[in-house]
């Protein structure tokens, strides 16, 4: 009754606050300020004490790494490690036990992984002391993209291409036949519009003519049953190597070398050749980490031409008016 009456306007008064209060309550219900203020102050005091008592044990877990005083440790929150994406689940140390093998002795790359490619800056994967051999055309394009960050196709739910990665897990599907002789190998990217890469392992060559695509045409083979080598051509020039907008052209040629030095680590070493934007080929390396047993890829809905940008006031750069 009070809620309904509170919005009514008096026909005979100017609706001063004290008049409205007396309309809402019977005389016995009108709060006495003399008693309400002490009660309110006591309530605030109790609330503050409760917050202090809850925060006290958490302060003992204050970050000692990122932004804290102890080197070598990440910040710790009540639910686990605090990382770049916020609160993360606690994870055990990397499993350094020997890599698993298929029945024929080929190393198994199967598993749910995070990492294995650039996200923010592909140059982070270069050997120490090296820089990207950018040509003037590449520098000019990167400067333009730096002023138009929301043009990144990946933000508009386009595939991220090669060798770019995402903060989300991906899965190798390798031992379809139980051996390294499987005619196909798939890499599933649920965190990127339900995308997948197909690597042909049957000895075929690249077609003479290819329609440019986001993931290109990939053929693979094994070296000594320890290293998966993936040779890819036929890319389009749409995706960015990273969030900085590092470019490539349709002349891009990548050679990936995937190894699994131990149970919990996957290493992707990629040689990139693109004479349109780079003075010479260069090689970058990125590691991926095996996710905990029982972890699975969750559904992630992000489809081409979604309305990401409109909500933030950005025009879709790929929409032809």
Order of helices and strands: HHHEEEEHEEEEEEEEH
Major beta sheet, strand line-up: 4-5-6-7-8-9-10-11-12
Number of strands: 12
Number of helices: 5
Largest sheet: 9 strands, mixed, barrel
Terminal Cα span:
55 Å
Shape call: globular
* Radius of gyration of CA atoms, rounded to a whole number: 29 Å
Strand content: 15-25%
What low-confidence regions span 5 or more consecutive residues with pLDDT below 50?
A: 1-40, 54-82
Structural class: alpha+beta
Overall pLDDT metric: 76
Q: Give the fraction of residues assigned to helices.
A: 10-25%
Task: Please describe what this structure looks like.
The chain has helices at 2-5, 17-24, 33-59, 136-146, 308-311, and strands at 76-77, 80-83, 86-87, 111-115, 170-173, 184-189, 195-200, 217-223, 227-233, 253-262, 265-273, 282-290. The protein has a domain at 111-311. Residues 1-40 and 54-82 have low confidence and may be disordered. The relative contact order is 0.14. It has five helices and twelve strands. It is α+β, with helices and mostly antiparallel strands and 321 residues long.
Brief sketch in words of this structure:
With 321 residues, this protein is α+β, with helices and mostly antiparallel strands. Helix content is 17%, strand content 22%.
Features:
5 helices; 12 strands; 17% helix; 321 residues; globular; alpha+beta; disordered N terminus; 9-stranded mixed β-barrel
Question: What is the strand and helix layout of this fold?
Answer:
Layout: H1 2-5, H2 17-24, H3 33-59, E1 76-77, E2 80-83, E3 86-87, E4 111-115, H4 136-146, E5 170-173, E6 184-189, E7 195-200, E8 217-223, E9 227-233, E10 253-262, E11 265-273, E12 282-290, H5 308-311
Parallel strand pairs: 7-8
Antiparallel strand pairs: 1-2, 2-3, 4-5, 4-12, 5-6, 6-7, 8-9, 9-10, 10-11, 11-12
């Amino acid at each position: 009754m009070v809620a309904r009456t509170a919005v009514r306007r008096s026909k005979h008064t100017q609706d001063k606050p004290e008049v409205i209060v007396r309309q809402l309550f019977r005389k016995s219900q009108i709060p006495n300020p003399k008693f309400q203020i002490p009660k309110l102050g006591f309530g605030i005091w109790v609330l503050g004490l409760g917050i202090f008592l809850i925060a006290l044990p958490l302060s003992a877990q204050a970050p000692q790494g990122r932004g804290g005083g102890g080197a070598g440790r990440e910040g710790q929150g009540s639910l686990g490690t605090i990382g770049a994406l916020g609160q993360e689940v606690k994870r055990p140390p990397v499993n350094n036990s020997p890599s698993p093998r298929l029945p024929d002795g080929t190393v198994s790359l199967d598993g749910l992984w995070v990492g294995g490619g650039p996200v923010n800056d592909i140059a982070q994967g270069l050997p120490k002391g090296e820089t990207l051999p950018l040509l003037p055309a590449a520098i000019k394009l990167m400067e333009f993209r730096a002023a138009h960050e929301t043009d990144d196709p990946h933000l508009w739910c386009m595939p991220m291409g090669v060798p770019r990665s995402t903060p989300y897990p991906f899965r190798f599907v390798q031992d379809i036949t139980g051996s390294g002789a499987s005619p196909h190998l798939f890499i599933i990217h649920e965190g990127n519009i339900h995308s997948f890469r197909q690597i042909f392992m049957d000895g075929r060559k690249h077609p003479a003519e290819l329609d440019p695509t986001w993931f290109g045409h990939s053929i693979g083979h094994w070296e000594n049953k320890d290293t998966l080598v993936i040779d890819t051509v036929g890319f389009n020039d749409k995706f960015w190597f990273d969030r900085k907008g590092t470019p490539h052209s349709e002349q891009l040629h990548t050679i990936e070398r995937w190894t699994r030095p131990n149970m919990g680590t996957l290493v992707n070493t990629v040689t990139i050749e693109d004479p349109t934007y780079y003075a010479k080929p260069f090689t970058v390396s990125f590691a991926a980490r095996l996710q905990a047993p029982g972890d699975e890829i969750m559904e992630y809905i992000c489809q081409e031409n979604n309305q990401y940008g409109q909500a933030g006031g950005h025009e879709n750069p790929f929409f032809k008016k």
